[in-house]
Task: inverse folding
């Protein structure tokens, strides 16, 4: 499999679900009847039991939809609670929700990334935790900037759908060169954000998160990079389908897509707060 900047998809095993080195499935961007890719050397080949069918696009769509729906439910509930607490000028519970959801999501994501095994329950719990985390932040922002929550949701959905269309139509090909560029850009912004956080602890302001012009430009760049990460996520899921991996691996594809969605939504919400704060 090609490399990806999403840690969820690193070092995945390839398999055939009992169909040999060529999977019979059609991926996100592959015409019916075309053979899948053969398995590259250096990877294991987990064979699914004869009764276990291979992964399909529908599996990925359904599992991603369930994960996203779980995040939306917990997110809405957390946002309503956070808005009520913000109205009562009680910030403590909001911070508790944010930190709790973030820590649970972080721990689960690390477990899934290092285990490299699909798990429906863990994916859904991860999605629920991230929903609580994002919902608490959204509720607080919505209390300060009315209407920002809907804008952030629509913006995230718009970017996701746009990149899916771009991938399916082949308007942008996921080549090894593009993959390396996206991975490098993702690593670059991650290092900048980490440096900004560490220096901020010592009172040094890099201007990346203070709501100024540089912060707005930086957020736009990060949103663009996150959007291009969807191309790698779609391509990785596509390869998993074409290689005939067992259907249960659709949960892992859903987990990978959720990590990018969480990142994108948080950055769009941040950008919108900058723009409304400067009005």
Result:
């Amino acid at each position: 499999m090609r490399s990806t900047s999403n840690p969820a998809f690193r070092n995945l095993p390839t398999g055939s679900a009992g169909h040999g080195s060529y999977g019979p499935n059609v991926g996100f961007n592959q015409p019916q009847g075309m053979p899948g890719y053969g398995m590259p050397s250096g990877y294991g080949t987990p064979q699914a039991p004869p009764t276990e069918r291979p992964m399909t696009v529908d599996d990925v769509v359904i599992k991603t939809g369930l994960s996203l729906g779980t995040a939306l439910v917990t997110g809405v509930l957390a946002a309503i609670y956070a808005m009520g607490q913000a109205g009562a000028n009680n910030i403590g519970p909001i911070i508790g929700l944010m930190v709790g959801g973030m820590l649970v999501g972080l721990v689960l994501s690390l477990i899934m990334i290092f285990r490299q095994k699909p798990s429906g329950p863990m994916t859904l719990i991860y999605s629920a935790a991230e929903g609580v985390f994002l919902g608490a932040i959204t509720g607080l922002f919505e209390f300060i900037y009315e209407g920002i929550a809907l804008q952030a949701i629509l913006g995230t959905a718009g970017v996701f759908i746009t990149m899916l269309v771009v991938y399916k139509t082949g308007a942008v090909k996921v080549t090894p060169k593009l993959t390396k560029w996206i991975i490098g850009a993702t690593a670059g912004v991650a290092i900048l954000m980490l440096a900004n956080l560490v220096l901020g602890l010592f009172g040094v302001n890099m201007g990346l998160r203070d709501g100024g012009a540089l912060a707005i430009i930086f957020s736009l760049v990060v949103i663009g990079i996150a959007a291009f990460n969807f191309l790698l996520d779609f391509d990785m899921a596509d390869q998993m389908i074409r290689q005939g991996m067992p259907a249960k691996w659709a949960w892992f594809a859903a987990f990978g897509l959720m990590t990018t969605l969480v990142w994108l939504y948080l950055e769009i919400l941040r950008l919108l707060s900058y723009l409304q704060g400067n009005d």
